[in-house]
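# nightly structure sweep
# worker-07 picked up a monomer target from the shared queue
# config: single-sequence mode, recycle default, output format = structure tokens
# input follows
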Amino acid sequence: TTCRPSISLLDLGCGTGRISRLMAARYGPTAANTSHRPLLTHVVGYDKYGPMLRVFDGGLEAELAAASRKMIRVDVPTENAAQQALGHHQQDTTRDKGQVAPLLVCLRPASYEALRSPMNAEGSAPVDTLEGIPTASEHILLPSAHWRSNLIVMAWSLSYVVRAQWGADTWHGSVDALMNNLLQVATPRAAIVVVETLGTGTNTPTRRITVAEYLQTKWGFINALELQPSSTVSSAAPQDSTPAPTKFIRTDYRFDSLDQGQKLCNFFFASGST
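# output follows
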């Protein structure tokens, strides 16, 4: 049998784990066409809000259990911690040649502000935990100790942080610092993917995303909307035989009534949404 290539995912601003959970289902041991697809083996999730991480943790564990796959929690995203966790898992599990490979998961509270700051913290794990999630203050590892990732995702989070926290005059330097840190924990040919909303209340993309334009100009990112159907992007994340995705995805909502839609949308988009 051929050894499937692996994906090590770094999910920034991960929230409740939507991206990681989709990846775990699509690139798991029991997914369709497994011989052509890489296997998700590592997930590191950083988010500012601990409650989000707890939802992430419970939801991912339940979905993996439904697929008969074990989730192994790791306190810090280092190879030493991973080997220790795997060792305990092997001791507690009867060896079975047909056993599904576990997924190593490390979820930690950290804001984008911490992620773009110099990574100079020690690599020790915080003492206090809550339901398997570290509750200590933001704690970022030295790049030399951190797991290397061949897929880094920032979904629906970077442009918000740039607008709300980093300010009009200083955000370029903050984005550059973040990118420099990410490159230190990425494999040489890793894919770094930024997912953003392209417009609300429209059938086609209309929103101009300034930070995306900056990433293209300064860091060589490619806008998926500008790719030709035959274009390919070189990446360390192994490719499968799945057809190329649509350039943008509509995420429309259907409501039972206008009143219901206004109430639910106002919760997120603030009062006055139509």
